[in-house]
Amino acid sequence: MGAARGEFSSRFGFLMAATGSAVGLGNIWGFPTNAASNGGAAFLFTYLVLAFVLAYPALMAELIIGRHARANAVTALRSISRGEKSRLAALLVGFAGIVTVSFILSFYTIVSGWMIAHFFAPIARLLGMQGLAAWLVEDSIVRNGAFVLLFMILTITIISAGVKDGIEKWATRLMPSLILILLLLIGYVLTLPGAMDGLRAYLVPDFSRVTDPALLVDAMGQAFFSLSLGVGTMLIYGSYISSDENLPTVGSLVALLDVGIAVMAGMLILPAMYVALANGVPIYDEAGGLIAGPGLIVSVLPALFSTMGFVGLFVAIAFFALMTIASLTSSISMLEVPVAYGVEHHGVERRKAAIIIGLLITVISLLIVLNFDPLFDMVVTLTTEVSQPLLGFAFCIFVAWIWHRNGILEEIQKGSPEVESGWFWKIWPVYVKYICPPAILLVYFQ
Ligand code: PHE
168 to each of 147, 161, 165, how far by Cα in Å? Predict the structure, then answer.
């Protein structure tokens, strides 16, 4: 075992860290565009239902295991397993989580790098450095590689500083700024011509789509990715929560904040797209759907900002600051998963573990940058669509079928002695046992 474990110093600290992990590119980019291409509020509705019915119970499973074991994913899953076979399964699932999250980080870093480059571009323009500004927004291997490096250095630096002085300190600074910037941007964009059409496209439901299998799969994938589930992130953050904290309450706060910020991001992105349309920027692709992939964030929105003249430079700075903050508070939670394992399981010093593992992931990122077309989509699909839901399923099985019911109750009772008579304990165990696993599989195999 390594040095003494860290712990979040307050409920606010944990909430900001966990919400920081949850709120990322998935909320501000993935959610609004998924909603736009899946029947607007019909997607929103399905997403809300799935988030609370399937993702929240899975989130609780991770938080409870984490705080009980006070250890990384591998050690934690093993500690709640009894027989030889389930201990072996624990090792495999815990390890698969660590590998998956490392690969998620490797592609996440590339996109986050684009966000920082786009953040610096309007600043360069303000300073009169037009050449630099043009280079920053141009897709090139050198630029992408350089910003992967910069983003990973930031991530490694924060994780090296530990739970309280790194993760908590930065999350409590960055997350309130994120919410403030988001509110300011929504307020501004909604005053522009065209914005109301966007709001309508987002909020008027096309209920004929609710039973569409593609919508269900997208909504579930989105909910799992957005709550950072299945890969041990919430488990490791749960392991740093104090024993007198009420887990069902903090878990619901994290889910509410995550969903709330995703819904709010929709009120920024879709109106912004229709403002862009009103300003003559094309927002539909050849197939007639709304542009949703990287093109949306790195070409439609910058094109919109440049139609806004001088103000547009500040809107661009604010928007890409928002994206960078969202990415960084998520990337640190990803790197923490393998680092905690290295520290606790192999006794490596934290700083050293953060640097070695961070460098390894940087190398994978750079390989993807160099072979973008074949690799990028493949890594995204394998990690987020194949591995993450299956691991989420496995976590539910561990908590509901392998761990003793008494152990779970004891753990939750630590911060909420009256839990046994409350709604959470009446519903949740049945849920994770009989509803979540088949529901995840059902949606998965759609
Ligand atoms: N939840 C993050 C987002 O929405 C992504 C993430 C996935 C973070 C898995 C940690 C682990 O962008």
Answer: 24, 10, 6
Q: How far is the CA of 383 from the centre of ligand 1 (A)?
A: 11
Residues 6+ apart with CB under 8 A from 441: 393
Distance 255 CA to ligand 1 centre (A): 13
Ligand 1 atom nearest 334 alpha carbon: 10
Pocket of ligand 1 (CB under 6 A): 21-22, 24-27, 101, 104, 225-226, 228, 231, 233, 330, 333-334
Residue minimizing CA distance to atom 9 of ligand 1: 228
Please measure the distance between the N-terminal and C-terminal CA atoms of the chain and give it in whole angstroms.
43
Domain 2-445 in this protein, CATH class = mainly alpha
> Which residue owns the Cα nearest ligand 1 atom 10?
228
Q: pLDDT 10s per residue in the chain (446 long)?
A: 444 689 999 999 999 999 999 999 999 988 888 887 787 788 888 899 889 888 899 999 999 999 999 999 999 999 999 889 999 999 999 999 999 999 999 999 999 999 999 999 999 999 999 999 999 999 999 999 999 999 999 999 999 999 999 999 999 999 999 999 999 999 999 999 999 999 998 888 777 877 788 888 888 888 889 999 989 999 999 999 999 999 999 999 999 999 999 999 999 999 999 999 999 999 988 888 888 777 888 888 999 999 999 999 999 999 999 999 999 999 999 999 999 999 999 999 999 999 999 999 999 999 999 999 999 999 999 998 889 888 988 998 999 888 888 888 989 999 888 888 888 898 899 889 998 898 888 877 87
What φ, ψ does residue 422 adopt, rounded to 5°? -90, 175
> What is the C-alpha to C-alpha distance for residues 330 and 332, in angstroms, rounded to an integer?
5
